[in-house]
Design brief:
alpha/beta; 7-stranded parallel beta sheet; 17 strands
Length: 503
């Protein structure tokens, strides 16, 4: 029954894809398993709807077992024709039919694929990709790992993916996201009680999730109600980073923000800031923060409700200083965001984070792939090859909420993984990461838990970038553009939160 419903849903998607073309020719390429079975069902429904359908199968019908075999037999008994693909010559012979099809359906491999694609399968996928035809993939494009988003040697480049019952995380994680096209989740009759959202390991962030996190403001409040974020950082030539983080906190709703920085830079920063306060700290001979700054930093933490450490801190000998700040935050019960050079400092010994987390520390770390690689002692390329897997590994090794930045930011926390669909390439510009750290700090300041703060921040941060890009394009998008957009986007989602509470 599930296969019948899945195949029917695919046939409807193919009809929509073919609606823009003059022809009604469809080629369906089927594997030996259940994914191929879905393809045979789709072929039958499309044929019954008047389409000229050709099925290519990697097995003779007599060799296909189970439900897939039943549907392959039905296809042939209703007059359908199946061309068998078993060698390179068969692939070459299929190209003419594929070339003249309005839509190609990928029903080769489903979600169970875990090893690299080789041989005639690889040749067929490369042939399909070389035609630049609309391709509808069933469940996942053949050749991608449905969980990690890895490309297993070669993969179908789909224009759309019809996935069954639930979205698969790999469809939204790069590099596979480039192969998925438009993703449509279809109901195939899975029993409602078989699964609960609370039990899910993977979650795709959306408006409703973020609206549930945001807290509408009450009338009888003051600036202290919404927290005070302390941003620690700055060094010669890098005063912009802590400034952007502090403004990010203010724009995200923190009532107060203070920048603690080397005292020689206080005048420069004071000339930049209006709403943000500064706190000059003792500095090293190189005009950076270090062990000499710690005792005064503790004083700066007084009456604060969250700390962000790292923006613009510099690459000096700061390991001891950052470690002591994190440990002091835990001691005082202050949630802390460690970003940028704060992470580079702790890469000497990330066990500091694990120890702090075991003592009840509320810690969020926000590495980009290069920083994540340094924390784990591997390359950025390794991180990008399995973003979900390495985000989870970082969580296990640090006990901290992980924000692995980049296209399709990953948040890993409490044995759950959250995938962010917002954001665009225009956001790859200086200062955007600092703004994100400040937004997380603002939510932590308001008493929101670490995981929810991180998730809401990355979604809103990306959404702001998307709003700006929709009006002005991606090129030339600045961190200040995101700052200016933040109140508009947050208030829009906060209104949804108010409506939810009213209901």
């Amino acid at each position: 029954v599930l296969m019948e419903n899945a195949g029917r849903a695919v046939s409807e998607a193919v009809k929509r894809e073919a609606a823009g073309s003059s022809g009604k020719r469809v080629a369906i390429v089927c594997g030996k398993g259940n994914n191929g079975g879905d393809g045979f069902v789709a072929a039958r429904h499309l044929k019954n709807s008047g389409f000229d359908v050709t099925v290519f199968s990697f097995s003779r019908v007599s060799g296909i077992k189970g439900d897939a075999g039943i549907n392959a037999c039905i296809w042939e008994k209703t007059g359908g024709v199946t061309a068998v693909i078993s060698k390179s010559r068969d692939v070459k012979d299929s190209v003419q039919t594929l070339k003249h099809s309005s839509v190609i359906v990928d029903a080769i491999f489903g979600i169970g694929l875990s090893k690299g694609i080789e041989g005639v399968y690889k040749e067929m996928i490369e042939a399909i990709n070389g035609l630049s035809k609309p391709v509808v993939a069933i469940d996942v494009p053949s050749g991608i790992d449905a969980t990690s988003g890895k490309i297993l040697g070669v993969a179908i480049k789909a224009s759309g993916t019809v996935t069954m019952a639930f979205a698969k995380p790999g469809l939204f994680v790069y590099p596979a996201r480039d192969f998925s096209g438009k993703v449509e989740v279809v109901d195939i009759g899975m029993p409602a009680g078989i699964f609960s959202k609370e039990d899910a390991r993977f979650h795709l962030l959306d408006d409703s999730f973020v609206a549930s996190v945001l807290r509408p403001r009450k009338k009888n409040t003051h600036k202290g109600t919404y927290g005070h974020t302390l941003v620690i950082g700055g060094s010669t030539g890098k005063t912009g980073a802590p400034y952007m983080a502090a403004l990010g906190a203010m724009r995200a709703g923190a009532g107060l923000a203070t920048i603690a920085l080397p005292k020689s830079l206080d005048k420069v920063m004071s000339e930049k800031t209006v709403e943000v306060m500064t706190y000059p700290l003792p500095e090293t001979a190189a005009s950076t923060l270090g062990d000499i700054s710690f005792s005064e930093t503790v004083k700066a933490m007084k009456a604060k409700t969250s700390v962000v450490i790292g923006p613009g801190l510099g690459r000096g000998d700061t390991f001891g200083y950052v470690r002591h700040v994190v440990e002091k935050c835990v001691e005082l019960g202050l949630p802390v965001v460690v970003d940028a050079d704060g992470l580079n400092a702790l890469s000497k010994d990330i066990s500091v984070l694990k120890k702090a987390s075991k003592k009840g520390g509320k810690i969020v770390i926000t590495p980009h792939p290069g920083e994540a690689g340094r924390l784990l002692g591997i390359s950025a390329k390794d991180i990008q090859s399995d973003r979900i897997g390495f985000a989870e590994r970082l969580f296990k090794e640090t006990g901290s909420t992980i924000v692995l930045k980049g296209a399709g930011t990953i948040v890993a926390s409490k044995e759950k993984v959250f995938i962010n669909p917002t954001g665009n390439p225009g956001m790859a510009s200086a200062g955007t990461g600092d703004v994100l750290s400040g937004i997380i700090g603002a939510f932590l300041s308001q008493g929101i838990d670490a995981s929810s703060s991180a998730c809401a921040a990355v979604y809103l941060h990306g959404l702001c970038g998307d709003e700006v890009a929709s009006r002005r394009g991606e090129i030339g998008l600045l961190a200040t553009d995101i700052l200016n957009e933040l109140p508009v986007v947050i208030n829009s989602l906060a209104e949804k939160s108010r409506s939810r509470l009213a209901d």
